[in-house]
Specification:
The structure is a single chain. The protein has seven helices and nine strands, in the order H-E-H-H-E-H-E-E-H-E-H-E-E-E-H-E. It has helices at 9-17, 31-37, 42-52, 76-81, 134-142, 173-188, 226-246; strands at 23-27, 56-60, 85-92, 120-126, 158-167, 192-197, 203-205, 208-218, 251-253. This is DUF2431 domain-containing protein. InterPro entries: BMT5-like (IPR019446).
């Protein structure tokens, strides 16, 4: 099964390498949309497939959307996380084995993608990690192989979220801030890459300093999606609020 081949050149190259394989190839467009997007190449590759590779089946993929590109990237780690998948490994894509394959689809056109390094073949694995609370997740992540606090994983999604704290006692601000950072590191340190203040956003409310902190979330064993990150961030705020009240700390999560 080949999903979203673009102009079908990869399907043709793969079929020539595997003449006995039963291949199902798909594109994201309808027939008319596909012909309009690849006017100079699609018909050629389709004709080649029909003549020389009769065991190839192709059909439009009617449901689903094209991956959004950002900085010329498919953001594949984020797309995989939405399906509970993690990138397990990456290896060089041996383009020389697929002589008729022409990379296309850059900005939804016939242009090829641009790579800083060589194209890669990615292997994915479905995550089986289970957790019920934010602190369970932090404990789970602490057991990740080579996990070091503050170290980012190249193949894992990350998201930035802001935390607003109102200090009710200005004279104790520095002390309370150290307490805050210590709490966050103790409870959530294994799922945060960084924590720092956005100093340009400092404000006062009724003579009480308000500070904004930026947290960068990343998990290694659990696919981190935008929805999951939002949920974790809200849970963090609830945990901190409860702790401030219970321990009579002069801070408020705003």
């Amino acid at each position: 099964l080949i999903l979203g081949d673009g102009n079908f050149s990869f399907t043709l190259a793969f079929a020539r390498l595997n003449p006995e394989a039963e291949i199902y190839a798909s594109v994201f467009e309808s027939s008319s949309e596909h012909a309009a997007k690849y006017p100079s190449s699609a018909d050629h590759y389709i004709a080649e497939i029909q003549i020389h590779c009769p065991r190839v089946h192709k059909r439009p993929l009617k449901f689903g959307a094209l991956p959004e590109h950002q900085l010329d990237s498919w953001q594949i780690a984020y797309l995989a996380a939405d399906e509970n998948l993690l990138i397990l490994e990456a290896s060089p894509f041996c383009a020389e084995k697929f002589s008729s394959y022409v990379s296309s689809g850059y900005h939804n056109s016939e242009r090829s993608f641009h790579f800083v390094d060589r194209a890669e073949t990615l292997t994915f694995v479905r995550s089986s990690a289970l957790f019920t609370t934010l602190q369970d997740l932090n404990e789970l992540e602490s057991r990740s192989f080579l996990r070091i606090r503050g170290l980012a994983h190249e193949w894992r999604p990350f998201f930035r979220r802001d935390l607003s704290i109102l200090y009710r006692n200005p004279t104790k601000l520095l002390h309370l801030e150290r307490v805050l950072f210590s709490l966050i590191d103790r409870f959530f340190g294994h799922i945060l890459i960084s924590l720092y203040e956005l100093e340009n956003l400092r404000t006062q409310y009724e003579d009480c300093p308000n500070r904004i902190y930026r947290l960068t979330w990343q998990t290694w064993r659990v696919p981190l999606t935008r929805t999951l990150c939002n949920s974790l961030h809200e849970e963090l705020k609830c945990i901190l609020s409860d702790y401030f009240v219970r321990e009579h700390l002069e801070m408020i999560v705003t």
